Every structure is written in C-alpha cells, then in structure tokens.
Q: What sequence folds into this?
C-alpha cells in the first residue's frame, strides 16, 4: 500500500455529502490542478514579506525580489535540464507558453490529434501551416508516421505531448527527438502532465522546448514556463509589449530586449516563480525513483481495479504503450459521465473531472464523444484514495444510475 509521498495543503479538508454528513475530500482531479505542497506554501509565506518590484527598484526589497526571481528562473530551468538560465521564460501557464512559441516558430508545425487544445490551437494562429495527423494505434506506427511525414514535407517544429492528459500515455521522447531532428525539425513537448509525474532532462533527451504549468506541479496558480532555445524567441516580436521588454523607447522607435525579458513585459510574478522553484526543490527531494514508483503503483492499482468493474470502459490511444502516468479516463455503460462525477462527489466526497478534457479530437476518435470521467493521482495520493474510488464505482454500478443533484450554497440537494 502506498501513503502520500509528501503532504499537500488541504489534505484533510472535509466536504459535505448529499446526506448532510461530511467526509475527507478524496482529490482525484490532480491532473487539472494540484493542491500546493505544504513545503511550497511554507516557502511562499516566507518570501511574502520580502516581495517587491522586480528589475525596477534600487531598494533593498526590490533587490531581494529581483534575485529571488532570477534564482527561481535558474532553478526551474536547471530542474528540467536547461543548459542556460536565459532559456527559461516565466509565463502564466502551459497555454501561455505554447502561444509564445507559436508566435516565434519560423515555419510549419506538425502535431498529432491526441493533443490537449493548448497544443493544437496556438499553432493554428501562426502564419505557417499546421498539420494535424491522426496518431496510429501503436507507438511503433506513430513513430513511423512522424518520420514519414517529416521526410515528406519541411517542418520547423514537431509539437507533441509528454503525457496525454486523457489517458496518461507517453511517447518515448528521446526517440521522438531523434526523429524530429533527423527530419530537420525541432521538438516541442507539452510537459504540463509529464512534469509532475516523471523527472526528465531536456538536454539529455534532446528536447528543444517544453511548456509547464506551476498549478499542475504542486505550486499555486499563476506561473509556468517555456524552456528552450533562445534564437527563435529572440527573433520574434515581444509577446507582451510594455515595460521591462525594452532597452530603449523613443517616440517612433523601440529597441526590444533579447532573452526572457523580451517576452516578460509588465511586472513579473515573483511569488509565482518562487513557488514553482520551491515545487521543483520538493520534487527533487522526493527523487526520481520514488516519484516514478509511487505513480506507477497507483496507476496500476487504479487501472486493474477499473478493469474488474463490469461496464467500465477505459480510454487508450496506443495498444503497445507501456509508459503512462497516473491519469485514467473511463466511462460506465449507461451512465452519463457528468452524473457519475456528480454522484461520486455527492455520495462519496470524491473529486474527479468529467467532460472532454480540452481534447475533443482525441475523445471523438477514441469513441468517447459524449465525454468521460477522468481520475488522476499525484504525490499526495494514496492507495486508500484509489480504493475509495473503486469501491464507490462498484457500488454505483451495482445500484444502477442514481439521482440528479444540484448544488445549493455549497451543499447538495437531491
Ligand atoms: N497541456 C496539457 C497536456 C494539459 O493537461 C493542460 C491542462 N489541462 C494544458 C496543456 C494547459 O495547461 P494550462 O491550463 O495550465 O495552460
């Protein structure tokens, strides 16, 4: 049995059930947004009294904040294997990061249809062609398809997910990087889901760019990063024009900064960056092996359990994938996913997500056009959390579809 690897804030939060009682909130919606680690919250509390303007003041607090911000940048980049500190641009989240790279990419983009909308839609706004190809049903064929397409037509960038936010499945990134480079393209990895579950180094794997979100990595909302080669970014228009992004401004002329400052116009989110760096420290403290084992064991327990419940169908992209993170999407025959998710919440205090997970093309292709339910785990999850979900599902399946609920002032009405 597995206990949480590290404490998250709010782990003991009690939530109301439909019968008026209260129970511990079983958070199985970690893939959407993870609660902050206690150590991250502690670090934020520690630096709040020191927080002031960054890169804008000579006062002591401004100098402290500037160095906190730049140290955090360096720390976040190093955690992901960036070789230079100026390769980490602090943004709000993965969506921001992808949009920033999309504004910088100098040629066509190739994507698979398994992506989150954040790794589909930004590319469509570039002046270049974005080609979205359906991923074949095995990893081997998918890699071959990418190789063929890259050889057939010139692409500047191959953009893929590090781990699917729907099924948790992951492509072999080092191999994908080789395929991209052999085809003359760079590789962008949407690591929003991969980063909280696996340690990896972009320089070791040969990845050119990654995007991450702090709120999925046990830091509070507000900061994410785009990490990768600076040449395209330095040649692109400033993402956010304004103070901080410029070296000189005349009435009719502007000299834009290069490096991260070019795209970080406006007062930067120092607390967000500090929190994200603290989350990197915490995951370093846990260690790659422990993180990996925890995630695999809980995922295994969840998927084995789901497979034993009659009428449960689990989503899967690749028949031959053996690498996947702790995210599972499923339906129960005859039960509307929204109602199922609501029942899990109202009767058992379990938080899952239902819907199409910002991955409409993938859901449609996998035969889940009506949506599905997603359960996801993280470092704060335990075997008991997974078992609570499995027990609840068994009970709901045995009793048939249940009641309709409406929320009222935070409580439940039948
Ligand atoms: N990519 C993936 C794989 C995701 O799961 C998500 C969040 N659901 C995103 C991108 C977008 O992240 P954010 O909302 O933090 O920009």
A:
């Amino acid at each position: 049995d597995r206990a949480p690897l590290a404490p998250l804030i709010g782990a003991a939060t009690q939530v109301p059930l439909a019968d008026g009682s209260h129970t511990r909130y079983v958070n199985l919606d970690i893939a959407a947004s993870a609660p902050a680690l206690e150590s991250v919250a502690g670090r934020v509390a520690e630096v709040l009294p020191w927080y002031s303007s960054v890169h804008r003041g000579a006062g002591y607090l401004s100098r402290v904040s500037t160095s906190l911000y730049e140290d955090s940048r360096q720390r976040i980049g190093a955690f992901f294997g960036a070789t230079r500190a100026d390769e980490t641009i602090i943004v709000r989240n993965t969506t921001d990061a992808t949009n920033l790279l999309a504004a910088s990419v100098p040629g066509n983009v190739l994507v698979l249809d398994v992506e989150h909308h954040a790794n589909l839609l930004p590319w469509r706004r570039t002046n270049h062609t974005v080609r979205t190809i359906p991923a074949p049903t095995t990893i081997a064929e998918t890699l071959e398809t990418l190789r063929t397409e890259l050889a057939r037509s010139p692409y500047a960038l191959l953009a893929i997910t590090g781990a699917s936010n729907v099924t948790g499945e992951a492509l072999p990134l080092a191999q994908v990087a080789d395929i991209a480079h052999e085809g003359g393209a760079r590789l962008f990895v949407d690591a929003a889901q991969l980063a909280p579950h696996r340690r990896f180094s972009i320089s070791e794997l040969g990845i050119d760019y990654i995007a991450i979100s702090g709120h999925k990595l046990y830091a509070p909302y507000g900061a994410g990063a785009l990490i990768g080669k600076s040449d395209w970014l330095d040649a692109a228009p400033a993402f956010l024009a304004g103070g901080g992004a410029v070296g000189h401004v005349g009435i009719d002329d502007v000299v834009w900064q290069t490096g991260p400052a070019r795209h970080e116009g406006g007062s930067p989110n120092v607390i967000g960056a500090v929190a994200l760096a603290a989350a990197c420290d915490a995951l370093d403290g846990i260690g790659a092996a422990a993180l990996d084992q925890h995630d695999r064991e809980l995922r295994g327990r969840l998927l084995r359990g789901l497979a034993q419940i009659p009428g449960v169908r689990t989503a899967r992209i690749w028949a031959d994938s053996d690498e996947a993170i702790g995210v599972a999407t499923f339906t129960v025959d005859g039960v509307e996913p929204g109602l199922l998710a609501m029942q899990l919440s109202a009767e058992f205090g379990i938080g899952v997500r239902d819907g199409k997970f910002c991955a409409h093309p993938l859901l449609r292709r996998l035969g889940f056009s009506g949506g599905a339910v997603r359960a996801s785990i993280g470092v704060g999850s335990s075997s008991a959390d997974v078992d609570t979900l499995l027990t609840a599902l068994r009970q709901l399946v045995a009793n048939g579809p249940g009641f309709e609920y409406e929320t009222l002032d935070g409580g439940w009405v039948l």
In short: Residues 310 and 397 are 8 Å apart (CA to CA). The longest strand covers residues 327-332.
